[in-house]
Amino acid sequence: MLTPRQAVPDLAVETVAGGTFDLASENPEFATLVVFYRGLHCPICATYLKELERLTPEFEKRGVKTVAISSDNEDRARQMAEKVGASTLRFGYGLPLSKAKDWGLFISTSRGSTSIGIDEPALFSEPGVFLVRPDNTLYFSAIQTMPFSRPHFQEMVGALDFVQKSDYPARGEYTGAV
C-alpha cells in the first residue's frame, strides 16, 4: 500500500503525443495528477476523462500537471484521446500490469465485449487517481475496484485552492501500531 508523504513507485510510459511521460522528470509547481483509467472499452472512463480534459487548464493554474494512463496499446490509447477530444490532457499507454499493482491498482479479467461493443483486454487495471508532489511523494490517492464512484475533478480543483492557501499537509501518513 502506498503511504502519503512517502515516495511513489517509478512511472514511465510512452504518450500518444510522442515521447515519454516520466513521473521522476515532471517538475510541477504543486503536483502531478496521475489518473489511471481502465481503457478504451470503458464508457465511464471516456466521460470521466472528458471532464479532466475540460478542467486541465484549471489544474494547470494551480500548478498541477495532468496525465491519463492505461495498459492499452498505442492504437487504443489514441482512440480514447480522440474520443475525449484531448488537446491539453496527456495520454500515456502500455502501463505494465506489474507496475499497476505496484501502485495498488486492482486488476480485472475480461468479460468480453462491453456495452459500447469494444472488447475488454484479457487483463486490465481498475481506476486510480493520485496527486504526486514534485519530490515524487504521495499527496492524495483514490483507488477503485469498479469503474464508477471516482473522485470528482471539479471538487479537486476547489480543494486545491484550500490546500494551497492553508499549506495543508498530506494526510494518512501514520503507519505505526493502532
UniProtKB/TrEMBL annotation:
PROSITE patterns: THIOREDOXIN_2. One of its GO terms (molecular function) is oxidoreductase activity. It comes from the Bacteria. InterPro entries: AhpC/TSA (IPR000866), Thioredoxin-like_sf (IPR036249), Thioredoxin_domain (IPR013766). Gene3D superfamilies: Glutaredoxin. Pfam families: AhpC-TSA. Residues 2-165 form the Thioredoxin domain. This is AhpC/TSA family protein. It comes from Roseibium aggregatum. The lineage of its organism: Bacteria, Pseudomonadati, Pseudomonadota, Alphaproteobacteria, Hyphomicrobiales.
